[in-house]
């Protein structure tokens, strides 16, 4: 703070700023003091006789094809233009390029150096024998000098603060997206795709993106089993410039659970959920397809499709196994932006919604193991798998949710659905289910059709020889 004297020292990206407590003051690094701008900042009132006071348009970026439109200000002196951020000065695109710093003509035009303007003669000699004044570039050039950013004036210069993920282009005088993918690949074992303000990582199957969103990992060789189920913040709202807001306070969820219930985005990286009317959403949340094939049993299973990455959702079941819900707290990495916040922060990731999100390696689940200790019937909607518990009921277990299937049904883990057991095809039974009959599977059960010459008996699933002279009868049991 000694560097700034009485002014406030504000740290920013690798440097610092001295900020005077009052708006009408500016910091003078030579005296390390705040000075009233009113003392010195008298707008030059130059007569027409003074050629130096002639006011014309100030241009920037003359290498641009549309340089005629690159007007910084329409009302500047040549010194104001060329000794600050201007590249050329003139009228109606009749541009005189500004002299190059270091050369004689530059030193002549800008005798006090860059960012400093000669005090007009009319103001007389100032009390401290100073003949120059800081140019307030932010005021002179308005939004043109720091497009998409926040301009901050300082003595002999100015700053343009950009949102994270952007840098200030001194030629274009605007905040430009930083291409994170250009020189080094931030995506471990994956492909980097630059986006405005951030970047995305894409993995080639069978690798999938891990919870860091910057690493492609194999499903089968995850070192840390705790990372298999990634639970994180579930956001219920997006506000402003798609910033995540209104977190679910009670607990953290998996991506699937969040998106299929009340969430619109997930995790500290604000990964968007698929649109509720999209096929991705239907697939992820195990919803009936809208094309009429809404029966779970008729639906094709979820497969990893290397040919079509957009269809490569993992079986939703696995992602629904959230870990024990931890206490809610926002990690430090969460980019909680406000509009006025131009600080240096981690880039907010925009996670492509078509990417598989932290899927788990399928593992056999015994639906009747002690994990059912905390048996608890839930509304299907609470289950996070929605229609998945048809012919069963949704229960919360330690790992998340599962379906407790009704008798005659078994859980199909690929479809996260209770499907009918085909008792007739169960080869584990050594004794045929239907004695002297043919087994026929039915929804939730089975039936026996007696073979010709046999009739149903009082015992279920047992056919006995028919009375010899009776006609052939077919009896169902
Ligand atoms: Ca300045
Ligand atoms: Ca970028």
UniProtKB/TrEMBL annotation:
Gene Ontology molecular functions: calcium ion binding
Keywords of the record: Disulfide bond, EGF-like domain, Glycoprotein, Repeat, Signal
Domain named EGF-like: residues: 177-217, 420-464
Keyword Signal found: yes
Highest taxon, organism lineage: Eukaryota
Occurrences of domain TB (ranges): 56-110, 232-285
Protein name per its UniProtKB record: Latent transforming growth factor beta binding protein 2
């Amino acid at each position: 703070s000694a560097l700034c004297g009485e002014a406030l020292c504000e740290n920013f990206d690798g440097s610092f700023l001295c900020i005077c407590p009052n708006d009408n003051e500016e910091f003078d690094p030579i005296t390390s003091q705040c000075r009233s701008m009113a003392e010195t900042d008298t707008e030059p009132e130059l007569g027409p006789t003074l050629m130096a006071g002639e006011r014309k348009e100030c241009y920037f970026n003359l290498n641009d094809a549309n340089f005629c439109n690159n007007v910084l200000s329409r009302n500047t002196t040549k010194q104001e233009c060329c000794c600050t951020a201007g590249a050329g000065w003139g009228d109606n695109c009749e541009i005189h390029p500004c002299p190059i710093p270091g050369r004689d003509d530059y030193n002549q035009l800008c005798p006090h150096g860059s960012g400093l303007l000669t005090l007009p003669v009319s103001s007389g000699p100032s009390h401290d024998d100073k003949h120059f004044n800081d140019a307030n570039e932010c005021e002179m050039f308005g939004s043109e000098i720091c497009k998409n950013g926040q301009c901050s004036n300082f003595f002999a210069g100015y700053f343009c603060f950009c949102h994270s993920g952007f840098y200030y282009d001194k030629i274009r005088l605007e905040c430009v997206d930083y291409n994170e993918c250009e020189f080094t690949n931030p995506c471990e074992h994956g492909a980097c795709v630059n986006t405005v303000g951030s970047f995305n990582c894409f993995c080639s199957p069978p690798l999938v993106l891990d919870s860091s969103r910057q690493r492609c990992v194999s499903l089968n060789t995850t070192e840390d089993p705790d990372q298999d189920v990634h639970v994180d913040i579930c956001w219920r709202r997006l506000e402003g410039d798609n910033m995540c807001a209104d977190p679910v306070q009670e607990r953290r969820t998996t991506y699937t659970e969040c998106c299929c219930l009340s969430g619109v985005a997930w995790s500290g990286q604000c990964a968007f959920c698929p649109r509720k009317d999209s096929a991705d959403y239907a697939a992820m949340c195990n919803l009936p397809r809208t094309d009429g094939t809404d029966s779970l049993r008729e639906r094709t299973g979820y497969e990893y499709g290397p040919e079509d990455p957009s269809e490569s959702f993992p079986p939703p079941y696995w992602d629904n196994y959230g870990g024990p819900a931890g206490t809610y707290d926002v990690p430090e990495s969460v980019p909680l932006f406000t509009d006025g916040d131009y600080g240096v922060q981690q880039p907010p990731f925009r996670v492509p919604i078509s990417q598989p999100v932290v899927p788990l390696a399928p593992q056999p689940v015994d639906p009747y193991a002690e994990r059912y200790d905390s048996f608890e019937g839930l509304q299907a909607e609470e289950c996070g798998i929605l229609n998945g518990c048809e012919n069963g009921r949704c229960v919360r277990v330690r790992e998340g949710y599962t379906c407790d299937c009704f008798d005659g049904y078994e859980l199909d883990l690929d479809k996260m659905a209770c499907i009918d057991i085909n008792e007739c095809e169960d080869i584990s039974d050594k004794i045929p289910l239907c004695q002297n009959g043919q087994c026929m599977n039915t929804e939730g059960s089975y039936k026996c059709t007696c073979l010709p010459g046999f009739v149903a008996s009082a015992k279920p699933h047992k056919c006995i020889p028919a009375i010899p002279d009776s006609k052939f009868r077919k009896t169902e049991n």
